[in-house]
Design a protein that fits this description.
Blueprint (H helix, E strand, L loop, with lengths): L5 H46 L8 H5 L1 H20 L3 H6 L1 H28 L8 H26 L3 H15 L1 H16 L4 H25 L5
Helix pairs in contact: 1-3, 1-8, 3-5, 5-6, 6-7, 6-9, 7-9, 8-9
Length: 226
């Protein structure tokens, strides 16, 4: 004869209720952690521009034309932080209206971030250590990010939620390339010093490729319709 245990059932339900939201926030926490390094760099750049730091060959291009880099730093910060919360499943389920409103800000800021980044890649002089390969990669992956955001926007306007989330995941993965590049560039710098232009380009490209590979794995591993 089967016996029910109300207390145990309640405890099990409570445990599941607590555990699931925590698991749903892990991606957001990890993504926010990955944004810390590029956001710190952007904050230092903004403080130099606002505080009137000494002009050097490395930062002269930003002082000569500060508007594009200011737009890029502000919008990519908004995109990275607010976008991380779009991956929180508990927040999507409990606050769908907030998710939609925040999503509009995420897409708008992402488009401004990537277009300003593409403009800088084309019109700013190359910084010391960068070369043609870095510029080519920036143009390629910047275009991938822009196309992904536009396709994600088009998909949600058609009501195709899974397709929308897949494309937004790809676009967000490209945006976080700067965070991953810290892990592809810094070890080499510590081991053998600053890499040459070609190796630097390859290591930066590896950061973007790695992020997109993880994004594709996530898209195929779990349904994005919930």
């Amino acid at each position: 004869m089967n016996q029910t245990h109300p207390d145990r059932d309640d405890q099990s339900m409570t445990s599941q209720t607590i555990t699931k939201p925590r698991g749903g926030w892990r991606a957001t926490i990890g993504l926010l952690a990955l944004t810390l390094i590029p956001m710190a760099g952007g904050g230092m750049r903004m403080s130099q521009l606002v505080g009137g730091a000494a002009i050097t060959p490395e930062n002269a291009r930003f002082f000569a034309q500060p508007f594009p880099v200011v737009v890029h730093i502000v919008t990519v910060s908004v995109f990275s932080v607010l976008g991380a919360f779009q991956f929180a499943r508990p927040l999507r389920r409990r606050r769908p209206a907030w998710h939609r409103r925040a999503g509009r800000v995420v897409v708008f800021s992402g488009i401004l971030a990537v277009t300003s980044g593409l403009w800088m890649a084309v019109y700013y002089p190359h910084p010391v250590g960068d070369g043609p390969l870095v510029e080519v990669f920036r143009l390629i992956f910047g275009t991938v990010m822009l196309v992904s955001l536009l396709l994600g926007l088009a998909a949600i306007r058609r009501g195709e939620v899974a397709t929308h989330r897949a494309w937004m995941t790809r676009g967000y993965a490209v945006a976080l390339g700067a965070g991953t590049q810290a892990f592809t560039l810094l070890p080499m710098a510590f081991i053998s010093g600053p890499p040459d232009e070609v190796l630097r380009g390859l290591l930066m490209g590896a950061g973007w490729v790695l992020n997109l590979a993880v994004a594709e794995w996530v898209i195929r591993r779990r349904p994005l319709s919930v």
